[in-house]
Predict the structure.
Amino acid sequence: MNYKLECYNYLFNLLKKKGGKNIILIGDFNIAHTEIDLARPKSNQNNIMFTLKEKQQLDKLIKLGFSDTFRNFNENKINNYTWWPYSFNARERNLGWRIDYIFTSKKVTSRLKNAFILNKVKGSDHCPVGIKWNRRPYQ
């Protein structure tokens, strides 16, 4: 956990230095941000990937001006996950977590048309995420 938090601090310092740039930040963050981002939030309180310290890291990223693109277009949409444990037929039962994100800086966010999860695509315990944006130049 300490190493994970150190990595986030390093990332945030780097992003602060890049302030105002057009940034798309994509990856497996290994954190479910809110209760809507996992199938069983009550039974996972304080479990790794859903601790308060971890969720606060995504809060910090948003305070830096980044947007969770999926939630921008799917604010209260439930049962949308990007990772499922291999055990207990979790994927077939949709007992997953949304831990893969696309965060964008303000200028990029203003160009977005959609953000989505391709949960039918298989190949690992994760699925792809994506965004669509207007092709007009930045202004």
